[in-house]
Amino acid sequence: MDGFTRLGLSSWLIEQCKQLGICKPTPVQENCIPQILEGRDCMGCAKTGSGKTAAFVLPILQKLSEDPFGIFCLVLTPTRELAYQIAEQFRVLGKPLGLKDCIIVGGMDMVAQALELSRKPHIVIATPGRLADHFRSSNTFNIKKIRFLVLDEADRLLEQGCTDFTQDLQVILEAVPVNRQTLLFSATLTDTLQELKTIAMNKPFFWESTSEVRTVEKLEQKYILVPEKVKEAYLVHLIQTFQDEHEDWSIIIFTNTCKNCQIINMMLREFSFPSVALHSMMKQKQRFAALAKFKSSVFKILVATDVAARGLDIPTVQVVINHNTPGLPKIYIHRVGRTARAGRNGIAITLVTQYDIHLVHAIEEKINMKLGEFAVKENEVLQILTQVNVSRRECEIKLECTDFDEKKEINKRKQLILEGKDPDMEAKRKAELEKIKKQKKKFKEHIKQAMLKKQDTEMHRKQRKSQEQKAAKDQQ
Ligand SMILES: Nc1ncnc2c1ncn2[C@@H]1O[C@H](COP(=O)(O)OP(=O)(O)OP(=O)(O)O)[C@@H](O)[C@H]1O
Ligand SMILES: [Mg+2]
Fold first, then answer.
1. How much is the mean pLDDT over the chain?
2. Which of 6, 7, 19, 26 to mutate to test the pocket of ligand 1 (most atoms within 8 A of CB)?
3. Do residues 125 and 88 both lie within one domain?
4. Mean pLDDT of the 87-115 span
5. What CATH number has the domain bearing residue 267?
6. Which residue of 72, 99, 251, 431 has the smallest Cβ count within 10 Å?
7. Residue 211 pLDDT
């Protein structure tokens, strides 16, 4: 029997899969699809690029075809680009159903979204912030009857990071029915298992791929030890080398801040590399345009922040370069997972400064393998060093002349206002907190010094006493 037929999927869905080159189920699909079809909650933890999306899309489409009504399913995901990608999978696989979907993400027109929601689409794919905003501002739709709630990249949605989704998630969870099927997927679920069980309450089926190494087999993982000040020269050298040797390879460069992302992109453009940037300070239209250019291989280099670290599926990506060593092993796993997907080969190279060595050790421990050193012709790097550093500095100055930092401040204030906070009060509160922190630190230091002094006096006292005892003994 055909692999997917054995899992209980209908022939029309199997036909759709075949058209996409999906012929044999991957382990996560093999294990999770039958359980989902049986009606169980499901938590699936499988490596990057292993087909987790189809593992939830296929059984949902099958159930939808049996009893279609809207709104049938809500999918939550941490980034806007990922929401569009998931919607695309639903559309392609569910084409024979005449599926109506609706994407609710930030940066897009809210009125148009509200209108679409009121038309009762079968599937809603959303980022938590914008969907929660719709709940807060209108009551023209409800999701009280949904059958499926999916959290893709579930651990990220529960994390209290720089973008904290927990409050929005709370609003959404209050709006969905208790009687639903909940499906949670990620390549890194295990750290947040307990929290996840409070969302998938219905005795969830938990499946995790059994493999010692947490990253995919066909991914070559390397590092280069570089002094901070010459990182960019190494980066330019690496890109030049890959471009010369493999014309058709696409490369993603991850860096830590929007500003760095912007500067590196400007600098690569100065060197005539076909590069585009993707970060959260860009307008949504620019973000989509950049990604589209990269996906179509018109531009072969994408410089991105971690907004592109999770879920994005771009088969042409052969190389991932970490311009900064990720502070968390989890982030490393997702970043490098943008290459070597669905059984393909790929290389990940991490630039490591002397201050990041402990981070590499933490990564190696988590993924359960050692990174190898990437050989670089250092004399070639030296030759371009001055030119690259001058160019970086010029780009920094150019950016300073624009209102990039000012925009960042405005965005922060806008965000606070959206969260119902007063930006000025927040700034005051932060300053107060900072003051208290400083006072606490000073107090701690004071206590530490006092303790040390006390220990010192005690030690001297003991020394003196033993000397006196010794002297008394000698006299006797
Ligand atoms: N059974 C299959 N056979 C071959 N290719 C497949 C199969 N299932 C999915 N794929 C393809 O594999 C690629 C990766 O799938 P997907 O994006 O679902 O990975 P993922 O597990 O969600 O990864 P990530 O953790 O990065 O989000 C997609 O291009 C998809 O079309
Ligand atoms: Mg995915």
1. 93
2. 26
3. yes
4. 95
5. 3.40.50.300
6. 431
7. 85
